[in-house]
Amino acid sequence: MFSMRSNLVTGDHALDANPASGPRAMAATLIDSVRAPVTFCGADLRVGLSVGISTFPEHGDEAEPLLKKADVAMYAAKKGGPHRSVIFEDGFGATAVRRLKVENSVGAPVCAG
Hints:
By secondary structure, the chain is α+β, with helices and mostly antiparallel strands. The chain is built from 3 helices and 6 strands. It has helices spanning 23-33, 63-79, 93-112, and strands at 2-8, 11-17, 38-40, 43-45, 50-55, 84-87. The strands form 2 sheets. The protein has a 4-stranded mixed β-sheet. A two-stranded antiparallel sheet has the order 3-4. The longest helix is centred in the C-terminal third of the chain and has 20 residues, at 93-112. The protein is globular and about 45 Å long.
């Protein structure tokens, strides 16, 4: 079982799955599925997809730590450029986790109204 977080232009989307192909292959399929431009009102729109992956039980045995680590991996994927997937590594360190906590805390009051 693994957890992936992807950030589309329209926002965050979570996908929990257990395909036989594994998380890297699933991420590649997702990324390939959004590469083609979509025509909207006569304009070609392109979507970028970054995927962060954490795996059970290597990165945690409960949803919350798995999703947090997938978020950290997603930000590492975004930093590396468009159309990338990254599997969480312990070496991502506390800096990335702190940045994620700050970003989440800043967005919480805005979402709360």
